[in-house]
Design goal:
Blueprint: H1 15-20, H2 24-30, E1 52-53, H3 76-81, H4 85-101, E2 106-107, H5 131-147, E3 151-157, E4 170-172, H6 175-182, H7 184-193, E5 197-200, E6 204-205, E7 208-209, H8 214-224, E8 230-232, H9 242-246, H10 262-270, H11 276-296, H12 298-303, H13 316-330, E9 332-336, E10 346-351, H14 376-382, E11 388-393, E12 409-410, E13 419-424, E14 438-442, E15 446-448, E16 462-470, E17 475-483, E18 486-491, E19 494-499, H15 508-511, E20 517-523, E21 528-536, E22 555-562, H16 566-578, E23 582-588, H17 609-619, E24 624-630, E25 645-648, H18 656-664, E26 697-699, H19 708-714, E27 731-740, E28 751-759, E29 768-774, E30 789-795, E31 804-811, E32 818-820, E33 825-828, E34 831-840, E35 843-852, E36 856-858
Parallel strand pairs: 1-2, 2-3, 3-5, 4-6, 4-26, 5-8, 10-11, 10-23, 23-24, 24-25
Antiparallel strand pairs: 6-7, 9-25, 12-16, 13-14, 13-16, 15-22, 16-21, 17-20, 17-22, 18-19, 18-21, 27-28, 28-31, 29-30, 29-34, 32-33, 33-36, 34-35
Helix pairs in contact: 4-5, 4-13, 5-7, 13-18, 14-18, 16-17
């Protein structure tokens, strides 16, 4: 598909006039995608196609199969931990350029769902448990994107806060928490940044799927909030014809359409389930969005094939500087007993499976192919002071699957890194043809062919992986295979694994992949072995009389690693730690543990990671212990009291290792603060008893008591509270000043606030300041309100020791309003309120009072 050569008259046409010229078939064709990533073009009317791309922390482009090497931003919770308006805007501007490099004009981001539970599979994709922080972050991000002419697609609207049964589960939320917690980030973003598009969530809300929920999309979003942009479904998240169109869902994605086919829509029109004028309204909405994007990006839309994608190598040094800064400023120093960090000298043992791995983001829609990547080990090695001596030990495994094929593998020519990848049509007798119709060399053995096609291949086909494996050791070596469909694995032309029977489905490939099958074989160092896997995309045969459900996608993951005895490797790590002055354990989760399509079962670190940390901390008694936790959300820390320091770098993107090194060695003074609460145990999580879908329904029984609101109201001490974050220096607050505006009407009411921040320590550093509000003790309505809620933040520049800076914020009506279920309006309690500056959500430092007038009520934005 290309728009090249198309007349640009569409840029100036009145969309309504254009709709009048269209046939019903043309109108209906526009209301669903052309393919996975593009809208439909109509050459007769010079209507161009535009391209969309995932996702929240980087623009992947049009293919899961052949991803364009890309910038990978630190994940959303890391960005939120910076509490920086500036860095959020800078991230949005960079992502706009990355989107354009994929020939796309819409980025499917940001994700602003609430981190209702740290076990949520996509918690790492969302900013925070706090709705105001999430909304303000989203607004900065969206304004930056759209200032560059790239549409945001804020998502997922709404209450996609879990992955369990996500397409069918019904989120049951009463009006007050729905408004104050789950809708609020979207409302703030709508008021402050006017996103050009919204993406609906998969789930139901109070009985109706969000993509066909008229009260949500039309009554609230379009009418009450004055939204005039495009509403699209999540991919395969449209479930009806008439209901979704009448609810004002403009675009079904992806294409080809499952629902918006002309015969189905025409039948609904003939049955008077859809009015022709409703079709016109949806087409008009879609075309106005396309026209806006084409005007802002005319050259990209018209002058290049929108299949064309490129990597922005000319900007890589500048990009890396920003990513490294965001990663470092997002790192949270949770604990630093005896000031073990920063490390300036001595023997340092770097231990753990994540140290040499490239853990840069979570899984699912957030997956990207990094244009470059820096592991923690590489970062610590490249940036170390000359007085630091590094050594390494694996400790134990940490990944769900063995690592993808490494440098030990080449194509069959023995020269090119990677492996040969060949596709064969299926013959009439069900066998692969003799000759492949497509051959390539692939570098990565984690492969999803969801968007791969070839004119000489049908829907199903055979694929072969052929590689030369040069053994790097003498000993036992393991290969692991996880596939959809069927597979047969050969070493030296000997069948070593038959995966042609039905496999138990696991979390891989959005729930379509089988358990990893491990093959262990003895190898001789330096010897070259022929590896071959034959893959049949068809599902294994089922028993007679049963139906075979078609697979959702074609995928395979091949791993390789030495066979190890983890008792021995953990002991080796302990012994290395004993010989060192400091042990830095790099552990955590990765894209196979935190991902779209499934939730985590508990807070524990996987595999034997907790055992590794505990043994090193317990047995290396004369060694200082630092734990670096790469994870997107909370984990338990049963070894916390045994270690000196804990550093939380989240998923740091391309520059993860360098950002970690900057803080470990003290080049950067940590300033990150937690955007989520870290609970001590699962029982303390507000949603613990009602997190998953229970016979299709998820009851949000905790109401407004989400995150730190819950811990404060119930007097529960978390492991670390929201807002916690240490520094290598100290800060104090003074001169908190509150200046109310003279206007008392809600739309004009403002509160100007400033506080002086003083660096009272011995190291230069920056500091984010968190402003909370505290309502009057007695409520005129009888409602219970949270004691404090975050309503604003800002960050200082880097302050030298002894220096100070005054930080300013401004509150508006959102900061003091709650949802009144009796009148279905926003209200504020009249009387004396307080602004408080918090060290964290449970520790307030300074405060000042202000008054809220009576009859403070409003609706809309």
């Amino acid at each position: 598909m290309t728009n090249k050569g198309m007349d640009r008259s569409f840029l100036k046409v009145q969309v309504e006039d254009l709709v009048d010229q269209m046939s019903m078939g043309e109108k209906v064709s526009l209301l669903a995608g052309e393919d996975w990533w593009r809208t439909v073009s109509i050459a007769r009317l010079n209507i161009p196609s535009v391209k969309l791309t995932d996702g929240p922390n980087g623009a992947r482009g049009q293919s899961f199969c052949n991803m364009t090497p890309a910038v990978v931003m630190p994940n959303a919770t890391c960005l939120a931990a910076t509490f920086s308006h500036e860095l959020t805007s800078q991230a949005g501007k960079l992502l706009a350029e990355e989107t354009k490099a994929r020939s796309a004009v819409c980025l499917l981001a940001p994700t602003v769902n609430i981190c209702r539970s740290p076990l949520g599979g996509r918690a790492f994709e969302s900013f925070s448990e706090d709705p105001t922080l999430s909304g303000l972050m989203a607004a900065d991000y969206i304004n930056a994107l759209q200032s560059r002419g790239i549409s945001a697609a804020i998502k997922h609207f709404i209450a996609n806060d879990q992955e369990h049964e996500r397409m069918g589960q019904d989120s049951i939320i009463s009006p007050r928490p729905l408004r104050e917690i789950y809708l609020r980030p979207f409302q703030i973003a709508q008021a402050r940044s006017q996103p050009w598009s919204y993406m609906t969530s998969y789930n139901k809300l109070n009985g109706t799927h969000c993509s066909e929920n008229k009260r949500l999309l039309d009554d609230l979003l379009r009418k009450e909030w004055d939204f005039d942009g495009l509403i699209m479904s999540d991919w395969m998240g449209t479930y009806s014809v008439a209901e979704a169109i009448n609810a004002t869902l403009d675009l079904e994605m992806p294409g080809k359409p499952a629902w918006r086919q002309l015969p189905l829509v025409r039948q609904s029109i003939n049955a008077h389930k859809i009015l022709p004028t409703t079709i016109d309204a949806r087409v008009t909405s879609l075309l106005k969005w396309v026209q806006k994007l084409a005007i802002f990006n005319a050259d990209a839309v018209y002058d290049q094939d929108n299949h064309h994608e490129w990597t922005r190598t000319d900007s890589q040094e500048k990009d890396a500087t920003l990513i490294r800064r965001i990663g470092a400023e997002g790192i949270v120093l949770l604990k630093n007993q005896d000031s073990v960090l920063p490390i300036k000298k001595g023997k340092v043992a770097v231990i753990g499976p994540s140290a040499k791995a490239h853990v840069i983001t979570g899984g699912g829609s957030a997956r990207l192919r990094p244009a470059w990547k820096v592991s923690p080990w590489q970062g610590l090695l490249d940036n170390k002071p000359t007085t630091v001596e590094l050594s390494y030990s694996l400790g134990c495994k940490g990944s769900k699957f063995l690592p993808v094929f490494g440098e030990e593998f080449t194509s069959m020519n023995g020269q090119t890194k990677g492996f040969d990848f060949l596709h064969f049509p299926i013959t009439a007798d069900g066998k692969p043809s003799n000759e492949p119709v497509h051959t390539e060399v692939r570098p990565n053995s984690d492969i999803m062919l969801a968007d791969f096609s070839h004119p000489k291949l049908g829907k199903d086909y055979f694929t072969e992986v052929r590689a030369c494996f040069t053994a790097p050791i003498t000993g036992d070596w393991q290969f692991e295979i996880s596939v959809t469909g069927q597979a047969w694995v050969y070493l030296e032309d000997i069948l070593v694994a038959d995966l042609s029977k039905e496999q138990k489905r696991t979390s891989s490939f959005f729930g379509n992949g089988g358990n990893g099958t491990i093959i262990t074989t003895h190898v001789e160092k330096g010897k070259v072995y022929k590896f071959r896997m034959v893959h049949d995309s068809r599902k294994p045969p089922t028993s007679p009389g049963s139906d075979s459900q078609p697979l959702q996608l074609i995928a395979m993951k091949l791993g390789s690693f030495p066979a190890i005895n983890e008792d021995d490797t953990i002991t080796d790590a302990v012994n290395l730690a004993k010989e060192s002055d400091v042990a830095v354990l790099v552990v955590g989760l990765d894209q196979d543990w935190e991902s779209e399509s499934y939730d985590r079962p508990n807070l524990s670190l996987p595999m034997r990671l907790d055992d590794l940390v505990s043994r090193v901390a317990t047995e290396a008694t004369n060694t200082k212990i630092v734990v670096v936790l790469q994870t997107g959300s909370a984990v338990s820390m049963p070894w916390l009291d045994k270690v000196n320091s804990v550093l939380w770098p989240w998923y740091g993107g391309n520059e993860a290792g360098n950002a970690i090194a900057d803080v470990v060695y003290g080049t950067v003074n940590p300033s990150g603060r937690l955007p989520i609460t870290l609970p001590k145990r699962e029982l303390d999580i507000p949603a613990n008893l009602s997190f998953k879908s229970a016979r299709t329904k998820t009851y949000y029984e905790e109401g407004i008591w989400v995150g730190y609101r819950h811990y404060n109201a119930r007097g529960i001490q978390p492991m670390y509270p929201f807002g916690h974050g240490l520094s290598y220096t100290t800060f104090e607050y003074s001169n908190l000043t509150v200046t109310p505006s003279k206007e008392s009407t809600p739309d004009k009411w403002r509160l100007s606030i400033s506080v002086q921040v003083n660096n009272t320590g011995k190291v230069a550093g920056s500091h984010s300041v968190h402003f909370y509000v505290n309502p009057p003790c007695a409520s005129s309505t009888g409602l219970t309100h949270p004691e404090v809620t975050l309503q604003g933040y800002n960050k200082t520049s880097i302050l030298a020791p002894g220096n100070s800076e005054t930080v300013h914020v401004e509150f508006d009506k959102y900061a003091i309003s709650h949802w009144d279920e009796l009148t279905s309006r926003w209200r504020a309690e009249a009387g004396q309120w307080r602004v408080k500056v918090g060290k964290d959500a449970q520790t307030m430092c300074v405060e000042a009072v202000f008054e809220v007038p009576r009859k403070f009520e409003w609706i809309g934005l």
